[in-house]
Amino acid sequence: MKNNRVLSLIGLATKAGKTVSGEFSTEKSVKTGKGLLVIVAEDASENTKKKFRNMCSFYEVPISFYSDKESLGRAMGKEFRACLAVQDENFAKAIMKEV
């Protein structure tokens, strides 16, 4: 049940235009200070996980490893998504509470 709640929140945040996805956009979001929460798929490559783990600890952005690429993509109404950044404080808090 919790699984669906997090994916629903991601979907709502996406519809509101408060998320970015894909490695390049997520990285840019974190580095410019807009990304308030990074979510990386559990089945993403080790290299991707390490890259975002290091970047998030450096920029002090919370990171969560959650679900799989297909589910994250489906929640956003797109294809596979290995990572995404939430750019809204309230959505970020709500998602962190559920994870």
Automatic annotation (TrEMBL):
<keyword id="KW-0689">Ribosomal protein</keyword>
<dbReference type="InterPro" id="IPR029064">
    <property type="entry name" value="Ribosomal_eL30-like_sf"/>
</dbReference>
<dbReference type="InterPro" id="IPR039109">
    <property type="entry name" value="Ribosomal_eL30-like"/>
</dbReference>
<dbReference type="GO" id="GO:0005840">
    <property type="term" value="C:ribosome"/>
</dbReference>
<protein>
    <submittedName>
        <fullName>50S ribosomal protein L7ae</fullName>
    </submittedName>
</protein>
<feature type="domain" description="Ribosomal protein eL8/eL30/eS12/Gadd45">
    <location>
        <begin position="6"/>
        <end position="93"/>
    </location>
</feature>
<dbReference type="InterPro" id="IPR004038">
    <property type="entry name" value="Ribosomal_eL8/eL30/eS12/Gad45"/>
</dbReference>
<keyword id="KW-0687">Ribonucleoprotein</keyword>
<dbReference type="Pfam" id="PF01248">
    <property type="entry name" value="Ribosomal_L7Ae"/>
</dbReference>
